[in-house]
Write a structure and sequence with these properties.
Chain A: Involved in the proteasome-dependent degradation of fructose-1,6-bisphosphatase. Chain A: This is CTLH domain-containing protein. The complex is a heterodimer of chains A (about 240) and B (about 1100). With about 240 residues, chain A is mainly α. Chain A is built from 13 helices and no strands. Chain A folds into 3 domains: about 25-60, no CATH class; about 65-190, no CATH class; about 195-245, no CATH class. Chain A starts with a helix and ends in a 25-residue tail after the last helix. Chain B is elongated and about 110 Å long. Classes of the chains: A mainly alpha (about 240), B mainly alpha (about 1100).
Chain lengths: ~240, ~1100
C-alpha cells in the first residue's frame, strides 16, 4: 500500500473510538465464544448450564469435557497411573502415536516413585529403578531430549527428600505443563483447536493494535498527535499473548 | 517386576481371554493399559498368543463393551511392529472389521472403531513402505481394497453410514472415517509389482465406478451439500454477492426460527438428489468429504457431471456465480468473508485469509481507473500484502512477503489485459454452481478443507466444468495460495520453521496434528499445482515468478535426502511404541513430498525451454538421478548402461518416486541443450536403462517415455543406449498387453530408427516382425486384444450397470462384485469444446471403438497413465483412441525407417515382406477420405480431421481426383470429407510415401505403376488444414519427378505423365494459392518441373 493510501485510511483518534462503539457484536456470537471457551478449557457443568441459560441451540453432546478435566486434575495431583488409564479410555491412540507425551507422563510417574521411595523408611529405590529400566530406558536412545531428561530424573535418586533439586522437579508448573500438553493433544485429536477462539481474538486484536501504532509512528499526521487508546481488555497479564 | 513376572501375568491374561468369560471387559481393560504405548509388552503378548483370542472376542463376544475394548487393543497393535499386523491379518481381522460396519445392527462406537482401524491399517501400509519387515503391509492394504470393492454388502454399509442423519458425535465421526476410507481405497495404488500381491485387485477406475453406481458419490455430494447449507445459513453474505449487514437480533431470530423449522430426518433421506440436505453439524469436518469426492471425480468428466446432478444443488447457489468475475465490482461480501472477524473466528485454525477477493476488487478498481488497455506497469502498485493473523504473537516480516509482493505485482500486470484463452468453451455453459462456494471455501477454514477445495476447483478446470473466466480467477486466487503454502506459508499452520525440523525430533515427539497438517500441504499442494499449470504456459510463468520453482526444488532435495533416524540406535533394543510407525510415516512423507514436488517441477518445465534451464539451475538434477538408482548407491554413475542388471522393487525407491523422477527427466530432456550437457553429465542413460526393466510396469512405461527423447538422432545417448540393447527391450515392451506400454515403446522405436544406421533400422524392423506390424497397423490391436474387448463387453452387460438409482438393497443379492479385465473401462470420449461438457455421454465400449463409424476418441486416463504428471507435448492435442495412437506410431515408424538416402534395400525388403499390394493398401486405408453430408446444426460435430470442401469442389463418392464430376447436390450445400485417421497419422502416411519416392528410380516406377490409387488419394490432401500434409503432396510430386537424376528421360517422362493423369497438375495448381508462402514456392517449382518433364507446358489435366 502506498503511503498516500495509508494516510487516507488512518483514522483520527475520535473516529476510532466512535467506530469501536458502533460495532454491535451479535449476542449469539458472543455466547458462542463463551461456550467455546468453556468447552475448550474443560468446564463441563458450566458449559451445560450456560447452554441452557443462553438458549444455545446446541444439541451436540460435548463428550469428553469432563474426562479431560479429570485427566488434567489427576496429572496435577501426581496420580499419573490413573491419568494414563483415563487417557487410554478417552483416546486410545494418543499414547501410541505420541511418544513424546507418553515419555513425559512416564517420567512424571518416575518422579512420583522416587519421591515415594525417598520418603519410605528404608529409602529403597529399587521400584523406581525397575520402573525406569522397564519403561523409560528403552525409549531414551531414540531421542537426545529423552535421554537427558531421564538422566536428570535418575539423578534425583541420589538426593535427599528435601533437596532443592527434587523440589524443583516437584514444582506444580512441571505437572501443569504436561497436563496442558495432554489436554491440547486430546482436543486436537477431536478436531478442535487447543486454543479457545477468544484467545485467538485477543491475540489478533493485540497484533492489530501494534501494527496501528507502528503505522502511526511512520506517518506524519497534521495536527496534534494523539496516541491510540491502549488495548485494555480486562484480562490478566498472563492470559494475554504478548508478542 | 521382573521379565518373568511379566510373562506370567501376560499368560494369565491370555488364558482368561481365551476362555471367553462373560466378564472379559475388565481383563481387556487391564491388558489395554499394559499395552498402549509399550512396544516391548506388545511384543511379549503377541508372542504368547494374544491375537487369536482377541480377534475372537472382537467378533463374537456377547458384551458390546468387551468388543469395544478388544478393538482398542487391536488398534494399539496396528501402531506397533508391522509384524503384529501380519498376525492380525492372518487371524482374519480385515474381514471381521468389515463385518462390523452395518450401521443398522452394529454398535455405533464399535462401528466407528472398526472404520478407524481400517483407515489406520491403510495409513500405515502405504506402498511406500518397503522394508523387509513389513512386506505384509501391502497385503493387508490390498486386502482391504479387495474386500471393500468385491462385496456389495460392504459398499452398501459405507453408503448407509454416509446417509445417517444426526448430530451425534460418534456418527459424525463415522461419516468422516467412511469418507477417509473411500479416499484411501480409491487412491490406493498397488505397486507391489504387476499386482503380484493381489492379482485381482480392481483398477482405480473400476473402484470409482462401483462407488458411483452404488450411490456413494451421491451420498457424498449430499454430505457436502450440508456444508453449503450451513454456510448459507451462517454466512448469507457469501451467497448474495454483497455483504448484508444483518441486524444481529434479526439474525438470531432467523437462526432460531430456522433451527425450529428444520425437519429432523429420521433414518436417511430417501432421495438425496431432490431433498436439500440439512445443515452440517458444527462438529463435522468438510475436508474428508471433499477429498473423497475429489478421489472419485478427479479427471473424470462423467463423474464430475454426476456430481452435479442433485437438483437442490442449483437451488442452493442460484445467482451468485457470475458475481465473482473480475470484471464486476460486486465483491464486498466475498471480501468480507476473508476477514478474520467474520468467518475466520469460527474457523478452527490460524489459517490466514488471503484477502485475494479483496485483491480482485482492487484490480477492478485499477481497471476502471486505467481501462483494460493500459499496460503501464507503473500504474499498478503492489497491493498491500495481507497481514497474517499473528501466531503466538510473532509477526512475519520476512523476505517471503517481498517476494510474494513481486509475484502479485506481476500477476496484476498479467491480468490486465486478461488472459487470452482459446481453449475454454465459450458461451452457454456457465460452469459448475459449486465454483463460487469452493472459491470462498478456499479462503477460509482449516488448511485441509482449503486444499481440498482448491483441488476440486482445479479438477473442474481440468475436466472443463468451468466458465471461460474461471481459470483466470483461479489463477488469481488459487495459484498465490498454493505457492505461498509451498513456501511454508506466512502464518500457515505448520509453517516453515517446523518444516525444516530434524527428522529424529519429529519422529520421537510423535506425529501430531500440526505435523500432519504440514505434511499434507507439502504432499498435496505440489500435485495440485502441477495439475493447475500443466497445460497453461501463462500459469507456469506466474508460478515461476512466484518462486515456485526454488521452493519445489528445495522440497525435492529435502525429500530425497537420506536421513538416518532412530534406527541407528542399538538394533537389539526395540524401538519404543510409536517410533516404528512414526519413522515409517516420516520416511513415507518425505518420499511423497519429493514425488509431488518432482511432478510440480515437471509441469512447470513442460513447455518453455527457459523453464527447463531454471530447473537445472536449481541444482537438483544429481538428487533426482540418485533417486533413480538403487537405494544407497551414491558413487559415480557408470558411463555405459549395463544390460544384464535387473533390479528388484526392494532395491529401488518406490515406484511413484521413480515415475515422478522419470516425468521430470522427460520434461527436461525436451531441451536439446540440457540433454546434451546436463543430462549427459549425470550419465542419465545408465539408471534409466535399468528402469526399463523394472518389475513394475508403470515404472517401465515411465522410463520408456524418457527413452523416447533420448534415442533421437541428436541425442548423444542414442549410441550407448542402442549398444546396450535398448532395441531388444523396446521390442519386448511393444508386445505388452498394456496399451500405454505398447504406444510408448513403439514411439521410442520410431525415434530409434530415425536417421539410424542401416543395421539398426533393419534390426528394429526384424525384431518387430512384419506380420505383427501389419496386424497392428491395420487393426490397432492384436488378436488377443480382441478377446479382451469381448470379455469387457460381457462385463458391461452383467454387472449392475442397469440398476436404477436408489435400488432396493434388501432385494439385491449379497453377491460378490465381479470384475473382469477392465483395462479399457476408463475410456472417455471427449467432444467438442462448444458443447456443454455435462451433456456428454462418456464411457464408450471398446466395440464402439472398433467400429469405423465412431471417430477415435480416447483419453489416456491420467490417473493410470505413467505421464499423469506431465503431458507429452504430443498429448496436448485432443486425445485419440489407443488404436489410433498405436497406428500413428507404426506409420511414423515406417516414415522414419525409410527416411534418408540409399534406403532402397530396406524399402524393398519391407515391400517384399508385406507384398507391395498389401503395403500400398495399408497406406491407402489410412488416408482414405469419406464424404459426409452436413448434419443439422444441433447434432453436428466437427471432427478434428474434417475438412470442409469449397462448394465448387463437390466430391464424388469414389476416390477420384478432386474436381471430377459430381451429381445431385445443390450447389450451396457444403459436403465434407472426413478421415477416419487423425491428421497426425495422415501426416505420417504422406511422408512415408515421400520417403519411398525419394529412393531409387526403381521404387519410383514401382509406385507409379502399382500404387496409382494411393497417389491419386494423396491429391486429396491438398485440402488438409495441416500445412505439413499439404507440403507433403508437393514433396511427393517433386520426388516422383526425380529432378536430380540426369539420365532418366524415358521413365521419367512416363512417370510424369502418369502423375498428370493422377491429377497432380490440378492439385498443384490449387496449392499455388496456398496461404503458406513456402508451399506456394515449392509448388511453383514442382509444377514447372512436372509440366516440363511430362512434355507439355500449359495443359491442365486431360
Amino acid at each position: 500500500m502506498t503511503s498516500s493510501t495509508a494516510r487516507k485510511s488512518l483514522p483520527a483518534s475520535v473516529d476510532w473510538e466512535k467506530k469501536i462503539d458502533d460495532v454491535a457484536p451479535s449476542k449469539l456470537d458472543l455466547n458462542n465464544m463463551v461456550m467455546n471457551y468453556l468447552i475448550t478449557e474443560g468446564y463441563e457443568e458450566a458449559a451445560i448450564k450456560f447452554a441452557q441459560e443462553a438458549n444455545l441451540a446446541t444439541s451436540v453432546k460435548y463428550n469428553g469435557i469432563g474426562e479431560r478435566r479429570k485427566i488434567r486434575n489427576a496429572i496435577q495431583a501426581g496420580d499419573i497411573k490413573s491419568a494414563i488409564k483415563m487417557i487410554n479410555g478417552l483416546n486410545p491412540q494418543l499414547l501410541d502415536t505420541n511418544p513424546g507425551i507418553h515419555f513425559s507422563l512416564l517420567r512424571l510417574q518416575l518422579i512420583e516413585l522416587i519421591k515415594e521411595c525417598n520418603a519410605s523408611a528404608g529409602g529403597d529405590v529399587t521400584p523406581a529403578i525397575d520402573f525406569a529400566t522397564k519403561h523409560l530406558a528403552p525409549r531414551a536412545p531414540a531421542n537426545k531430549g529423552f535421554l537427558n531428561a531421564l538422566e536428570e530424573t535418575m539423578l534425583l535418586i541420589m538426593h535427599q527428600p528435601n533437596s532443592p533439586q527434587l523440589s524443583a522437579m516437584n514444582d506444580p508448573s512441571v505437572r501443569q505443563e504436561i497436563a496442558k500438553m495432554v489436554n491440547d493433544a486430546l482436543l486436537e485429536a477431536d478436531n478442535m483447536t487447543s486454543e479457545a477462539d477468544i484467545r485467538k481474538l485477543i491475540r489478533t486484536r493485540a497484533f492489530v493494535g501494534e501494527e496501528l501504532v507502528k503505522i502511526q509512528a511512520n506517518v506524519k499526521i497534521n495536527g496534534p498527535k494523539t496516541p491510540f487508546p491502549p488495548f485494555d481488555l480486562g484480562i490478566d497479564e498472563d492470559e494475554q499473548m504478548s508478542s | 517386576m521382573s521379565a518373568n513376572d511379566d510373562k506370567v501375568r501376560a499368560l494369565a491374561f491370555i488364558e482368561q481371554l481365551s476362555a471367553t468369560a462373560p466378564d472379559a471387559r475388565q481383563t481387556l481393560e487391564d491388558v489395554k493399559n499394559e499395552l498402549i504405548g509399550h512396544e516391548l509388552q506388545k511384543r511379549l503378548y503377541v508372542e504368547l498368543g494374544l491375537i487369536p483370542p482377541l480377534v475372537n472376542i472382537f467378533e463374537n463376544h456377547g458384551d458390546i463393551s468387551a468388543r469395544r475394548e478388544a478393538s482398542v487393543i487391536i488398534g494399539s497393535m496396528v501402531y506397533g511392529d508391522p509384524q503384529f499386523l501380519t498376525t492380525l491379518t492372518e487371524a482374519g481381522i480385515i474381514t471381521k472389521l468389515f463385518n462390523s460396519l452395518n450401521p443398522h445392527t452394529t454398535d455405533p462406537e464399535l462401528l466407528l472403531q472398526s472404520l478407524r482401524l481400517l483407515n489406520q491399517i491403510l495409513d500405515i501400509c502405504t506402498p511406500y513402505i518397503r522394508t523387509s519387515s513389513c512386506s505384509q503391509g501391502p497385503i493387508a492394504s490390498s486386502k482391504i481394497v479387495q474386500t471393500l470393492y468385491r462385496k456389495r454388502r460392504n459398499i452398501r454399509n459405507i453408503l448407509d453410514i454416509l446417509r445417517q442423519e444426526t448430530d451425534n458425535r460418534t456418527i459424525i465421526h463415522q461419516i468422516t472415517e467412511a469418507a477417509k476410507l473411500i479416499t484411501q481405497t480409491v487412491e490406493f495404488a498397488d505397486f507391489g509389482g504387476d499386482g503380484a500381491h493381489c492379482p485381482k485387485l480392481p483398477t482405480e477406475a473400476a473402484r470409482r465406478r462401483v462407488l458411483v453406481e452404488h450411490g456413494v458419490l451421491d451420498a457424498l455430494v449430499y454430505r457436502m451439500g450440508g456444508f453449503i447449507v450451513k454456510d448459507k445459513r451462517d454466512h448469507p453474505e457469501l451467497f448474495t454477492g454483497k455483504f448484508v449487514s444483518e441486524d444481529s437480533k434479526a439474525r438470531e431470530e432467523r437462526l432460531r426460527e430456522e433451527s425450529d423449522n428444520s425437519v429432523k430426518l429420521d433414518g436417511y433421506a430417501e432421495d438425496m438428489l431432490h431433498n436439500t440436505p440439512p445443515p452440517a453439524s458444527p462438529l463435522a469436518s468438510l475436508s474428508p468429504i471433499l477429498e473423497a469426492l475429489l478421489a472419485i471425480t478427479r479427471d473424470s468428466i462423467e463423474n464430475t457431471r454426476r456430481m452435479h446432478q442433485a437438483t437442490w444443488l442449483s437451488e442452493l447457489a442460484p445467482d451468485y456465480p457470475r458475481r465473482l468475475t473480475p470484471g464486476e465490482p460486486k465483491l464486498k461480501g466475498i471480501k468480507k468473508s476473508g476477514s478474520s472477524t467474520n468467518l475466520g473466528l469460527n474457523s478452527s485454525t490460524a489459517f490466514p485469509p488471503l484477502a485475494a477477493a479483496a485483491r480482485i476488487a482492487q484490480l477492478t478498481a485499477l481497471r476502471n481507473r486505467h481501462g483494460p488497455a493500459s499496460a503501464d506497469s507503473s500504474a499498478f502498485q503492489t497491493p498491500q500484502a495481507h497481514t497474517p493473523i499473528p501466531r503466538d504473537g510473532q509477526t512475519n516480516e520476512d523476505e517471503g512477503e517481498a517476494r510474494l509482493a513481486d509475484f502479485e505485482n506481476d500477476y496484476l500486470r498479467a491480468l490486465v489485459p486478461p488472459f487470452k484463452r482459446g481453449s475454454h468453451p465459450a458461451g452457454k455453459y456457465s460452469g459448475s454452481v459449486l465454483v463460487p462456494w469452493l472459491i470462498a471455501r478456499s479462503t477460509v477454514g482449516d488448511c485441509f478443507s482449503r486444499l481440498a477445495a482448491i483441488g476440486m476447483l482445479t479438477n473442474f478446470v481440468r475436466v472443463g466444468s468451468t466458465t471461460k473466466k474461471t481459470p483466470t480467477i483461479l489463477g488469481l486466487l488459487v495459484l498465490p495460495t498454493l505457492v505461498r503454502l509451498l513456501d511454508g506459508g506466512v502464518g500457515f499452520e505448520g509453517g516453515p520453521a517446523s518444516a525444516s525440523k530434524d527428522g529424529v525430533e519429529v519422529v520421537s515427539n510423535g506425529i501430531n496434528r500440526r505435523t500432519r497438517t504440514e505434511w499434507h500441504i507439502l504432499e498435496t499442494a505440489p500435485k495440485i499445482l502441477a495439475a493447475l499449470v500443466m497445460d497453461d504456459q501463462d500459469l507456469q510463468k506466474l508460478a515461476i515468478d512466484g518462486h515456485a520453482m526454488q521452493t519445489l526444488a528445495k522440497l525435492v532435495e529435502r525429500g530425497l535426502k537420506q536421513e538416518t533416524l532412530s534406527h541407528s540406535a542399538d538394533p537389539n533394543v526395540p524401538l519404543a511404541a510409536g517410533l516404528v510407525t512414526a519413522t515409517l510415516l516420516y520416511n513415507d512423507h518425505k518420499l511423497k513430498m519429493a514425488e509431488a514436488a518432482m511432478r510440480g517441477l515437471a509441469a512447470l518445465a513442460a513447455f518453455a525451454d527457459e523453464n527447463r534451464k531454471r530447473v537445472v539451475e536449481t541444482g537438483i538434477l544429481p538428487s533426482v538421478v540418485t533417486a533413480m538408482r538403487p537405494i544407497g548407491e551414491t558413487g559415480p554413475v557408470e558411463k555405459t548402461p549395463n544390460r544384464t542388471i535387473r533390479r528388484t522393487v526392494e532395491e529401488m525407491y518406490p515406484p511413484q518416486v521413480l515415475i515422478a523422477a522419470c516425468g521430470l527427466i522427460r520434461s527436461l530432456s525436451r531441451s536439446i541443450s540440457i540433454l546434451r550437457t546436463d543430462l549427459m553429465d549425470q550419465n542419465i542413460g545408465t539408471p534409466l536403462f535399468e528402469l526399463l526393466t523394472h518389475p513394475n510396469i508403470d515404472v517401465r512405461i515411465a522410463a520408456t517415455t524418457v527413452v523416447c527423447n533420448l534415442v533421437l538422432d541428436f541425442s548423444p545417448l542414442k549410441g550407448p543406449l542402442t549398444e546396450a540393447g535398448v532395441v531388444d527391450i523396446l521390442c519386448e515392451h511393444v508386445t505388452s498387453s498394456n496399451p500405454f506400454m505398447r504406444v510408448n515403446a513403439m514411439w521410442a522405436l520410431k525415434h530409434v530408427v530415425y536417421f539410424a544406421e542401416m543395421d539398426v533400422r533393419m534390426k528394429c524392423y526384424r525384431s518387430l516382425s512384419p506380420q505383427w506390424l501389419y496386424q497392428l497397423a491395420r487393426d490397432g490391436t492384436v488378436a488377443e486384444e480382441t478377446q479382451r474387448h469381448k470379455s469387457q463387453k460381457d462385463f458391461e452387460g452383467d454387472v449392475g450397470m442397469g440398476e436404477p438409482e436408489g435400488q432396493d438393497y434388501e432385494d439385491a443379492s449379497d453377491d460378490d462384485i465381479d470384475y473382469t479385465d477392465d483395462t479399457y473401462e476408463s475410456l472417455e470420449m471427449e467432444e467438442d469444446e462448444d458443447d456443454d461438457p455435462f451433456q456428454l455421454k462418456t464411457d464408450i465400449s471398446p466395440d464402439d471403438l472398433r467400429s469405423k463409424n465412431v471417430p477415435y476418441m480416447f483419453d489416456f486416463p491420467s490417473n493410470t497413465a505413467p505421464n499423469a504428471g506431465v503431458k507429452n507435448s504430443s498429448y496436448t492435442k485432443p486425445s485419440k483412441g489407443e488404436r489410433e495412437y498405436i497406428q500413428q506410431q507404426i506409420m511414423g515408424f515406417f516414415r522414419n525407417l525409410f527416411s534418408g538416402e540409399h534406403m532402397e534395400a530396406l524399402v524393398e525388403t519391407v515391400l517384399n515382406d508385406f507384398g507391395t499390394r498389401h503395403f500400398v493398401n495399408l497406406l491407402k486405408e489410412k488416408i482414405a477420405p469419406r464424404v459426409e453430408r452436413p448434419r443439422s446444426e444441433g447434432l453436428g460435430y466437427t471432427r478434428p480431421s474434417g475438412v470442409t470442401l469449397p462448394a465448387r469442389d463437390p466430391v464424388t463418392s469414389n476416390a477420384g481426383a478432386p474436381g471430377s464430376s459430381f451429381n445431385g447436390t445443390p450447389e450451396d450445400e457444403r459436403w465434407r470429407i472426413c478421415f477416419d485417421s487423425s491428421p497426425e497419422t495422415i501426416d505420417q502416411v504422406v511422408y512415408t510415401v515421400v520417403h519411398i519416392a525419394a529412393q531409387s528410380k526403381k521404387l519410383k516406377d514401382l509406385l507409379v505403376h502399382e500404387a496409382g490409387d494411393l497417389l491419386k488419394l494423396l491429391t486429396w490432401m491438398i485440402y488438409s488444414p495441416v500445412g505439413s500434409i499439404r507440403r507433403g503432396v508437393v514433396w511427393v510430386a517433386f520426388n516422383m519427378i526425380g529432378v536430380e537424376e540426369v539420365n532418366d528421360d524415358i521413365t521419367r517422362k512416363e512417370r510424369c505423365q502418369k502423375m498428370v493423369d493422377y491429377g497432380y497438375v490440378r492439385a498443384l495448381e490449387h496449392l499455388l494459392q496456398d496461404a503458406d508462402q513456402d508451399i506456394r514456392e515449392r509448388t511453383r517449382l514442382a509444377l514447372f518441373e512436372l509440366r516440363k518433364h511430362a512434355g507439355f507446358s500449359s495443359h491442365g489435366d486431360h
